[in-house]
Amino acid sequence: MSENGKTVITSCTSCKAFYQVPETIVGKEVACKKCGQNFVVSILKKNTTVPLICQVILNYNLAGKDLIKLALEEYNSTQTEHQSKTFEDFLVERQILSPESMALAKDISKSWENRQLEKLFAAIAIKAGFTSQDAAKAALKEQAILFKESRKIMPIGDILVKNNELTIQQRDAILKKQNRLDEIKTARPVRSKETPGVPPSPESQHTASPEKPVSTEQLPDHVPDIQNEKKPETENMSASPNDAKDMDTFIEENKGHLFEGNGFEIIVTYDRLNAFFRATDDFDNSIKLYDVQKILDENAITYGVIKNDLIKNLIENSENGKPVFKIAEGTPPENGKEGQIIIYFDTTPRKAGKIKEDGQIDFKDRGDIPHVKEGELMAEKIPSVQGIPGIDVYGDPIPVDQVEDPILLFGANIKFSEDGLKMFAKTKGQPQLSVGGRISVLDELTISGDVGYKTGHVEFDGNILITGAIQNGFKVKGGNVKVKEINGAELELTGSLMVTDGINDAKISALGDVTAKFISKSNITNFGDILVSKMIIDSEISCGGSCKAPGGKIVSSDISAKYGIEAVDIGTSMSRPCKLKAGLDDHLAKEIGGINSAIERHRASIKDCQEHNKNFIKEEEQTHMSIAEQAHIQDRSQIEQRQIREQIKDLQEKGDAKGISLLEAQIRELEKNVRMAENGINLLFDKQERMLESIENNKKRIAALESRLWELTAEKKNILQYAKKEKGIAIIKATGTIYAGTTITGVHSSRIVNESIRRAQIKEVHVTDPDSPVEYEMRLIQ
Predict the structure, then answer these.
(1) Is the pLDDT of residue 212 over 50?
(2) Do residues 315 and 351 touch, judged by C-beta distance below 8 A?
(3) Do 155 and 184 form a contact (C-beta atoms < 8 A)?
C-alpha cells in the first residue's frame, strides 16, 4: 500500500494480466506473476482492453453489450475508489450480474484457461519427442468427446498415459514444467462447464496458457525454422493492384487453414504466423466489419490483428474490387545462439616421436613444448544466448530449441575471473586440454631413480619425469610422464606416456599418446597413438589413434585402433593369432565405462550421506528431548530444595532437630540428583555437538560429491562429442607378413586371414556390386 493509500490498475504488456498496485510504483519495472516477464507499471487507460470475463458474459447473454461497456468505463474511471474490488465484484455489487451468473462466468473463464494449458501440454510432449503429432491429435479428439459426453475434462496427460503414448514420469515432468503437477494430482478429473466458442482475450493470453479453443486441426504439422526478420508495419499490409497476384501466389503456396465467411475467406499460413483476408466471387464492399470480426473471433485469431479502421478502409476502398491483404501477423521466434569456449593456447598434440633407422625412438623430434606464464589468459567462455519464443496469430507460443551452455572444466593451477567466464594460469607451466575438456597448467616433478618403496605411489597434478623405472606394484597418477622403464606398474595419466625402454606387465590409462621400445603382457587404453619401435607381444590395447610398430612385430595380441594398425609382421607361424580391430571406438567404451562406474559410486555415496544425515537428525532431536528432560529434573530439584529450606527455617524456630535432620537428608539427595542431571546434560550436549558436526560434515561431503558428479557428467559428454568429430579408418598394413589365423574387424565387416599374406594392406570398403550379398567387406589391397 502506498503512503497515500491509493492504488491503480495496471496490465502486463506480455500476457495482459491485470494487477492492482500501489500508485507509488508507477513507472517502475516489475515481474508479472502470471507469465514471468518484466514490464513497466503504467496506469491502465480506459478501454485499453476487454477482459475475458466480459467476452464470456456477452457470449452467454448474461448481460447486454452496452451495459457491460458502460460498466467497464465506469470501473476504469473510478478505479481508485474501488481499489479493494475486482471488476467481477464491481459487476455483482452494481447488480449488473447476479452472484449465480458471475459464478457461471468465472467457471467458464477458468475452464477456458485450463483447456489452453491442456493444448500446450500436447505441444510440449510433441516438441520433447515423448509422443507423435498423430497421437496428440487423437488424444485431444478423445478429450473433446469425453467432455461432450460427461461435461468433464480428463487431463490429456492421463489420456496419453492410458494410451501408452507417455510414461507417468514423462507426464509428470511436463506438468511440473507447467507448474500444474500439484494441481492435477489433487484435482483429477477436472470438472468443467466449458462451452466451445468462447473467444479469448488479451487478459488471459500469455506464454504459459494461450487462449484459443482446443482443436485437433490447430496442432502444427511441423514447426519450421523461421529466420528472424523485421516485422512489417501494419499500414503496409495491404496488397496493391500490382502485387495482389503475387500475394495470391504466396497464400496458395503457404496456405494452412481456411475459414470461410460471407463473400470472403480468412487464410492462415501453415506456420501460423500470417492471416490473410481474401475476397471471394460473391464479395461486395458493403460487407460489415462485424462479419470479419466474427470469423476472427470464432477461430481464435486474436494476435497481431490490424486495427478495425484499417480493415474497414481496406475493404471499402479496394481499387480492383477484390481486396486481399494481411489481416494479422504473429511474432516469429528468435533462434538462440550457441555458446563457445575459446582456447588461447596451442592444443595441437605433440608428435609421439620419430623412429630412427636403428629402431630407436627420437624423443627430441616432437615439436615445440607449449608454455604459459603466470596470470596468462588460458580460455574464455562465451555464454549461449537462449532463443525467444514467437507468438502465432492464435496467440499460441512458437517454441524455440533450447541452446546448451558450454561447460568450462578446470584442473590444476587454474583461477577464474570474477564473472567465472575467463581462466587464467595460476603458475607458469605447460597448458593442457584433456579429451574430457578439462583445462590445466602442468608443473613438473622430477624423481631421480625408481618409483618404488623409497618413493611410494606417486600422484601429482602435473608432468612427471622419472629417471629410473616404475617398479612392480606401484602406481603413478599425473599429466605427462616420461620414464625409462615400466615393470608391473599401474598408470593413470591425463597426458602422454614416453618410455625410453619397454613396458612390461603394466596396466595403463592415458588420454594422450603412448610411446615405447616394446610392450609386453600389458593392458593399455588411450585416446592418442601407440608408437612402438620393436614389438608388441601378449598385450591388449585399445587406442583412439593409430597403433604402429613400423620397425617391428605384433604378436599374440588383441588390438583396437580407431585409425588403423601398422607393423612389419603381424603374428608368427607358431604364436596365438592376433585379433585386430580398426575404425572402432573400443577405447571409448572402456573410458566411458569407467566414468559411468564413477558416476554410480558418487550417486551411491550421496545417497549414503543423505541417509546418515536423516539418522543423525533423528538422533539429535531425541538428544535434544533428553536434554530438556534432564534440565527439567534439575530445575525441579532446585525448586524442591528451596521449598525444603523454607521448611527447615520453620522447624528451627520450633527446635525440631529430628525433622531438620530428615529434611537435610532430602536436600542432600536432591543435590545429588542435580549433579547427576548436570553431568547427564553435559554428556548429552557433547553428544549433540558431535552429531551436529557430523551433519554439517556430511552436508559438505554431499556438496563436494555433487560437484564431482556434475564434472564427471560433463567430462562424459565432452568425450563422447570428441569421439564423434571424426570417423575412424578401418585399415591394417604390414610391410612384412600378415600370418594366417589373424582376425581383422572393421566397422561393418570382418575377415579371418586363411593364408599368410606378404606386403599387404587390408581395408574396409563399400561394395558397389549390386549382386554382392554384402554391403561392406575387408578387402585385400596389395
Answers:
(1) no
(2) no
(3) yes
H-type helices in 11-166, by residue range? 52-59, 65-77, 87-93, 99-127, 133-150, 156-162
Has residue 20 got a pLDDT over 70?
no
- Tell which CATH classification among 1.20.970.10, 3.20.20.80, 3.30.990.10, 1.10.287.2610 matches the domain 592-714: 1.10.287.2610
The sign of the torsion formed by the CA atoms of 233, 235, 236, 239 equals positive
| Cα gap 179→439, rounded to integer Å | 39
Amino acid in position 696: E
Contact in structure between 397 and 210 (CB atoms under 8 Å): yes
Between CA 143 and CA 43 the distance in angstroms is 41
Average pLDDT over the chain, rounded to an integer: 80
Tell me the residue length of the chain.
Answer: 782
**pTM for this predicted structure:** 0.50
DSSP E strands in 686-730: the ranges are none
Task: Tell me the three cell numbers of residue 667.
Answer: 536436600
Please write the tens of the pLDDT for every residue from 705-739: 998 898 888 888 888 877 777 788 999 999 999 99
Residues in Cβ contact with 109 at an 8 Å cutoff, skipping those fewer than 6 apart: 52, 53, 56, 198, 204
Q: Where are the domains of the chain?
A: 7-102, 234-329, 333-535, 546-577+728-782, 592-714
Parallel, antiparallel, or unpaired: how do β-strands 558-561 and 579-582 relate? parallel
Angle, helices 99-127/133-150, rounded to nearest 10 degrees:
160
Residue with cell 455489487: 93
Closest CA to 273 of 215, 328, 339, 207: 328
The pLDDT score that the predictor gives to residue 41 is: 79
Question: Contact 199/303 with Cβ under 8 angstroms?
Answer: no
Question: Using CA atoms, how far apart are residues 72 and 164, in angstroms rounded to an integer?
Answer: 48
Q: Are 210 and 120 in contact (CB under 8 A)?
A: yes
Closest CA to 327 of 350, 355, 299, 360: 299
CA dihedral 749, 755, 756, 757 (to 10 degrees): -60
Q: Please name which of 43, 227, 17 lies closest in space to residue 113, comparing C-alpha atoms.
A: 17
Closest CA to 203 of 397, 330, 17: 17
Candidates 330, 269, 262, 270; CA nearest to 298 is 262
How far is 284 from 64, CA to CA, in rounded Å? 30
Q: Kindly state the cell numbers that stand for 19.
A: 494487477
What's the grid cell of residue 654?
A: 520450633
How far is it, in rounded angstroms, from Cα 769 to Cα 690?
Answer: 77
Phi, psi at 423, each rounded to 5°: -110, 135
The dihedral region occupied by 590, where left means phi > 0, alpha psi between -120 and 50, and beta the remainder, is: alpha
Strand partners, 466: 447, 483
3-state secondary structure of 394: coil
Report CA-CA distances (Å) from 663 to 16, 635, 638, 761. 81, 19, 14, 109
Question: 3-state class of 544 per DSSP?
Answer: coil
Contact 324, 280 (CB under 8 A): no
Residue 17 grid coordinates: 494480466
Q: What is the pLDDT of residues 166-194, one digit of tens each?
A: 888 888 888 887 777 776 765 554 333 33
Strand 29-31 and strand 38-40: the pairing is antiparallel
Determine contact, residues 371/428, Cβ cutoff 8 Å. Answer: yes
Q: Which grid cell is 8?
A: 491503480
Is the peptide bond prior to 189 cis by the omega test (within 30 degrees of 0)?
yes
